[in-house]
């Protein structure tokens, strides 16, 4: 099925052809017709399935069909995403789709100057892509108006909840006075996610292109049991012996990322960093170097698990197993995209065996173990026997999120609620 068959304008079809888009992906086949009819959508879709085009192309076409003059600070379509990288990627894709139209597209996120973003917003924007935190900052300064919002999209909604953005989402929803067509896309679902969907969607069309919490069939999974202190050495050996040229490595802490990059460089392996303490410009440079092959390894924290679109990425390594089993799906979603083969490699210490079992239960697949000679973990058998024989231990839930990410997000949400409540109280007092 071609894009021309969906009655998109010649300008859109021409741009898609130049992007190399030929046939609709499964998520696009299911979502686009419903979105074109104006239905709310609740979609279960992994990264790399073409969901950006699935939600943005119908919005673009409807804006073209119902042309309006832009008004100061006004936004017609709002797309929310959890990370800077994902926001930038979505905006870039939409700019490519709209290159032969006069539709305006802007991206706002932290790490860049508020003043430059304010100038762009002042003119009015057709499609705004934003992180929740930065959007609220502009809302508080009256730099953006959602009073006439027509379309609202939540991309990677599960990740937004994991990062503690639920308070921010409620604040944003409280500022919307219209009933926009709303689409929610998520790779995983939880009770909290279902509750949010129930609150914001009106009779949604539910779409699923793969089993919930599944991983792409194009990804081969392997696990290397190894003691924590030997992981860095094992990583260098695998990169060298297997001649891996492009490797995205995930760690749980910024400190681990910093130290690992230093150690890899000492081993003669060029590596770059991507985590929350790095300025957005530095993260962009690191990603560019990695994409261009100037750096062999990029070491990243969870902030990079969503939104990184690296064409043909062959290897993703979980140096640390994620705190949340669902994040395994998002991390390895960087490889095996668009039908290409990918490899997901996980280093698992004795302390991380429980997380590995939870991951396997989630993806309904036992991951192949490879024991590399010379890297055998110490005293592992006793722990495994205990874990598999005692239900209370085996069924124990893992940590739900990276504590530092969650606490920062929660503090930010509490602060904003306090500011808004104080402001409302002041207005109420003035009325009296």
TrEMBL record:
Chain ranges of the DEAD-box RNA helicase Q domain: 1-29
TM regions (residue ranges): none
Domain Helicase C-terminal: start-end pairs: 234-381
Gene Ontology CC, one term: cytosol
Coiled-coil annotated spans: none
Single GO MF descriptor: hydrolase activity
Keyword terms, alphabetized: ATP-binding, Helicase, Hydrolase, Nucleotide-binding
SUPFAM superfamilies, per the entry: P-loop containing nucleoside triphosphate hydrolases
Domain Helicase ATP-binding: 32-207
Q motif, short sequence motif: residues: 1-29
Family indicated by similarity: Belongs to the DEAD box helicase family.
Key word Chaperone present: no
Name by which UniProt lists this protein: RNA helicase
CDD domains xref list: DEADc, SF2_C_DEAD
Region (Disordered): 388-412
């Amino acid at each position: 099925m071609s894009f021309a068959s969906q009655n998109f304008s010649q300008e859109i079809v021409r741009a898609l052809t130049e992007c190399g888009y030929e046939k609709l992906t499964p998520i696009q086949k299911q979502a686009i017709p419903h979105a074109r009819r104006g239905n709310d959508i609740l979609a279960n879709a992994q990264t790399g399935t073409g969901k950006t085009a699935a939600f943005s192309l119908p919005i673009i076409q409807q804006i073209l069909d119902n042309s309006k003059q832009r008004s100061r600070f006004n936004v017609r379509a709002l797309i929310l995403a959890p990370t800077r990288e994902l926001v930038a990627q979505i905006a870039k894709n939409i700019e490519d789709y709209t290159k032969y139209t006069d539709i305006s597209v802007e991206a706002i996120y932290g790490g860049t100057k508020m003043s430059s973003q304010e100038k762009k917003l002042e003119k009015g924007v057709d499609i705004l892509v934003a992180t929740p935190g930065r959007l609220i900052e502009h809302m508080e300064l009256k730099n953006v108006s959602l009073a006439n919002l027509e379309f609202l999209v939540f991309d990677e909604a599960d990740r937004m909840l994991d990062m503690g953005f639920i308070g921010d989402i409620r604040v944003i929803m409280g500022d919307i006075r219209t009933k926009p067509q709303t689409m929610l896309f998520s790779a995983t679902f939880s009770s909290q996610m279902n509750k949010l969907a129930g609150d914001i969607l009106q009779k949604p069309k539910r779409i699923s292109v793969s089993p919930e919490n599944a991983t792409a069939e194009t990804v081969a999974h392997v696990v290397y049991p190894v003691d924590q202190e030997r992981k860095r050495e094992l990583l260098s050996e695998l990169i060298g012996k297997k001649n891996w040229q492009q490797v995205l490595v995930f760690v749980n802490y910024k400190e681990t990322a910093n130290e690992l990059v230093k150690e890899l460089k000492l081993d003669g392996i060029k590596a770059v960093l991507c985590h929350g303490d790095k300025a957005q410009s530095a993260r962009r440079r690191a990603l560019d170097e990695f994409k261009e092959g100037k750096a062999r390894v990029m070491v990243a924290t969870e902030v990079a698990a969503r939104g990184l679109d690296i064409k043909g990425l062959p290897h993703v390594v979980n140096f640390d197993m994620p705190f949340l089993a669902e994040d395994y799906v998002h991390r390895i979603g960087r490889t095996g995209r668009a039908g290409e083969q990918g490899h997901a490699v996980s280093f698992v210490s004795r302390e991380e065996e429980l997380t590995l079992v939870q991951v396997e239960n989630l993806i309904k697949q036992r991951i192949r173990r490879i024991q590399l000679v010379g890297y055998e973990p110490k005293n592992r058998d006793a722990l495994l026997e205990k874990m598999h024989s005692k239900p209370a231990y085996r069924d124990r839930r893992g940590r739900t999120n990276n504590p530092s990410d969650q606490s920062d997000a929660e503090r930010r949400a509490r602060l904003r609620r306090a500011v808004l409540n104080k402001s409302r109280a002041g207005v109420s007092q003035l009325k009296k």
